[in-house]
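::Encoded backbone::
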Amino acid sequence: MKLTGTILANAFALTTVIVWVICSAFIFLLPGLSMTITSWWVHGLDLSPLGTFKLDLINFLLGGITLTLAFWGIGYIFGWSWEKVSKK
């Protein structure tokens, strides 16, 4: 199978959906631990002034849709770039 921009974009989008659902479930079930891990990922930044996670259905859907679209675009551009630089 030839790697194309569309194939790579679809793989990026599917991966994003899977990770988004797992991450959202983790935040829903363990919000305190999620905030601690997020703080670790931003070099110990105190995130308490930002408040707590507000994960409701609208935030889950809109965040997931926009993130998936963004990563589909990134995958497509990456695939297009790969095709351009790999041609002999």
Observations:
- The chain has three helices and no strands.
- The longest helix spans residues 57-86.
- The chain has one domain: 5-86.
- Helices lie at 5-29, 31-41, 57-86.
